[in-house]
Amino acid sequence: MSKAVIKFLNPLYTLKQKSSLVLWLSMVALCCTILLVEFNKTEAKFNAGLLAALEINSPKHQAAIALGQNYQNKLLLLVGHEKTAQAAIMAHDIRSRLQDKPWLESVYSNPLNANQLQQLVAYYGASPFSYLTKHQKDTLKSAIVNKQSQELNDEYFTLLNQWSDPIVSQSLEKDGTLTLAAFLKDRLLNRSASETNWQFSQQEFMLKSDDLSYIPVFINIKPSHINIRDSVGIFKELQAIKAKYTQALTKEHSATEVLMTGMILHSAAASIQAQSEISNFGLLSLIGVIVIILLAFRAVIPLIACLAVIACALLVGITALVLLFGEIHLLAFVFAVSILGIAVDYGFHVLVLRQHTQAPAQEIRRKVFLPLTIALLSTIAGYSLFFTTPIELLHQVVVFVGFGLVGAYLSALLLLPSIQFTSTGTSFAVLPKQHLAYIVVATLVFIASITALNFDDNIGNLNTKSSLLIKEEQKVARLTGENVYPHMVLIWASDQDKLLKESQQLAERLRLQGAVLKSIADWQLPKAEQLKNIELIKTNWQLNNYHAISPYLADNAIESALSQATPIELMPDFISQYTGVNIKKVAQQYWTALLLSAPPSQAQALSIAQAPSSSYVNLPVALSAQLGEVRADVLYTALPATLVILVILSCYFGFTSALVMLLVPIVSSGLALIISQFFQTSLNIFNVLACLLIITLAIDYMVFFRAHGMEKHISHTISLSALSSALTFGVMSFSATPAVSSFGLTLLIGISLAWLLSHLTPLTNIKK
Fewest CB within a 10 Å sphere: which of 72, 251, 277, 399? Predict the structure, then answer.
């Protein structure tokens, strides 16, 4: 190292023990203070599930996610029993049990309850002639053309005879012609009954299978409670309710079941799994690292010192996450378990040197500064490549690990050189005969096998879902005749009226081709369309087609209603409560969706493609394609990053040494990919990302061997580092989430290969 650099770093080398300790304690105190302030200011928000971790930059995908949010706070329970009356009692008991829950917005079994019907009547009753069903329009047009109103009169008296029907009775208050009643009955009952398996029986809204009758319990959760903590609590409460009724009635030998569906349940299940893995993997890694430390040093003081380094790394990493991200992904902590193995490496390098020398703290600090700094920078550089992906989860991993390693680095430099101990532990040193032939053969094997690599970027293969929840959703779909999560056809336009017109036209075309779908255009019409409906009523009134009905109405009722008839203001947010479809503004465009109960047929797909501003969106397929692009981008980004590392190493060790030093990590990562494929059906982006970390970690091994030579204590240090890293990454290969297990498996193999090749490849006889 040059004299100028030594002079610049002289204050760090010459720090006294007390000053070092004060600096370290100040760092810890600052992080603790920040965390206390942040947690008191607001509760940390967490999410789970791989899909939630993806940043989607396309307006189309952003719109699809925004429109799909309507399903985030909805749950459906189907309470089944062989006797309808008993199923109704069970459903009533469940509603009563949930009624006072702080997270509950509403719970009901009949979607036509009095409050909801009253809201709809109030909204559409403001101008009852603005909305007509297709059948109503055909009847009114026929009356004009044929100059007779018999069919119009028949429909009126048919509805009037149903005065006990709540839709009819409540609509009469707003519209004596029952035009509004006919519209609401069609939208709420007739269309639902014709397109799904729901039915009314014994005054209950229900479903029937061959063996059981099912009463639904519709649950809406308050938006403020759509978070990980509350979703886990809700999931556990519903599981307890389900277990109670299932077990109790099973003892009575009654056929019964309770089915649950809802997006929040998958988030809760993923969260529980992630929390379990964080605890289990973290505990196993920590126990393994403690065992390694005790074997290596056979003393308590080095163990305490290494645990202090790890604790500081975790503290600094969590502080950075809380400060930089409003919402933290739980899988970030699963990936970030790897920091245990990397952070303790810095402690090993200092403590092994202390174990073999009684030099003063300043001298030890000077000896380890260069290799530790290069190791830190190269590791952070490798992790920083994760910023090239659109995966928010990996951005959080970079921040957690990057800042955490800075904390470990400062702890190792400030705290550990002053520690004194004299014990001699178990040596992990390995000094095999070195030869360049080993790395040459490994390189040739890598080159020969690289074409056999097989990648599959299907996002469905990267995440895991509860098999029990999936089975229940499939059964609910069979019972209801509806897809739990419908297929989405996006439609966009520059204004809402144009959007509704295009939605209406495409919905009619697809229904003629046999599609079963939901559209907001069934409930919201452009103003021009509403005016046409009003004009149609007005023409019939002027032709005296309401003469048979008029005696049953208040004086001048129709004339008065027509004089006040104006288009109803659009309220898509209000209507989305009943339809599940909304209108959202994204990227200066208005977006809505048609929700299909099944994927579009070939003819339907052609109609969608021919529509000017519509697109069938399959988010998993779109995201899989995006992941494929990201994987390619990561590989392209890795090349210049590797060149940067080569330049950095060349400045210190010369080009030839740097080239060989870099070849070992690259070949190790390449062979790790090839071997990983034997354990996986195909490779994915997380295998590739693991290779980037292998390169950055393996560089550390080569730097220490090149800086200090093939010494026994250096081999001992590197073996400890590799063992701790392999342990912490290796436990991740047992994760139930394929993305995490792929990442851990490739790292386990790559670190093992890097350790082996770093010992077999000669460096000390290579000149600058």
Answer: 251
CA dist., res. 645 & res. 640, Å (int) = 9
pTM score: 0.69
If you count them, how many residues does the chain have? 768
Residues 448-460 pLDDT 10s: 988 888 888 776 6
How many angstroms separate the CA atoms of 522 and 514, rounded? 17
Question: Do the domains spanning 1-41+276-384+402-425 and 427-473+619-768 agree at the CATH topology level?
Answer: yes
Tokens of 482: 């509806």
Neighbouring residues of 401: CB distance < 8 A, sequence distance ≥ 6: 317, 336, 338, 339, 342, 379, 383
Q: Say if residue 421's pLDDT is above 70.
A: yes
Q: Using CA atoms, how far apart are residues 240 and 233, in angstroms rounded to an integer?
A: 11
Q: What CATH number has the domain spanning 1-41+276-384+402-425?
A: 1.20.1640
C-alpha dihedral sign at 445, 447, 450, 452: negative
β-strands 213-221, 256-261 pairing: unpaired
Give bridge partners of residue 77 from the DSSP assignment: 217, 260
DSSP secondary structure, 727-749, as one string: HHHHGGGG-SSHHHHHHHHHHHH
Distance, in Å, from the CA atom of 157 to the CA atom of 551, rounded to the nearest integer, reads: 12
Nearest C-alpha neighbor of 598 from the set 471, 518, 504, 482: 482
Check residue 187 and report its DSSP letter: I
pLDDT bracket for residue 717 (50, 70, 90): confident
Residue-by-residue DSSP string for 590-626: EEEEEEESS---HHHHHHHHHSTTEEEE-HHHHHHHH
Alpha carbon distance 565, 125 (integer Å): 10
The residues pairing with 27 across neighbouring beta strands, listed in sequence order, are none
Beta carbons within 8 Å of 173's beta carbon, 6+ residues apart: 121, 125
CB 454 within 8 A of CB 570: no
Cα atoms found within 13 Å of the Cα of residue 11, Cβ hemisphere only: 3
Structure tokens at 472: 């229940």
SS (H, E, C) 382-444: HHHHHHHCCEHHHHHHHHHHHHHHHHHHHHHHHCHHHCCCCCCCCCCCCCCCCCHHHHHHHHH
pLDDT above 70 for 337: no
In the chain, where the domains are located: 1-41+276-384+402-425, 73-261+533-566, 427-473+619-768
Please determine, for residue 762, whether its predicted confidence score (pLDDT) is greater than 70.
Answer: yes
- Reported as type and span, the H/E element at residue 123 is helix 114-124
Q: Which residues contact 421 (CB under 8 A, 6 or more apart)?
A: 297, 299, 301, 302, 354, 355
Nearest residue to 689 (alpha-carbon basis) of 736, 641, 622: 641
Domain 427-473+619-768 has CATH 1.25.40.620: no
Q: Could you count the other beta carbons within 10 Å of the beta carbon of residue 624?
A: 18
Give the E-state strand segments of 646-719 in sequence order.
Answer: none
Instruction: Decide: residue 147, CB within 10 A, 0-12 exposed, 13-18 middle, 19+ buried.
Output: exposed
Q: Residue 276: which residues within 8 A CB-CB, separation 6 or more? A: none
5 pLDDT band (50/70/90 cuts)? very low
Q: Could you identify the residue written with the tokens 């973290």? A: 282
CB atoms within 10 A of CB 639: 8
574 burial (CB, 10 Å; 0-12 / 13-18 / 19+) is: middle
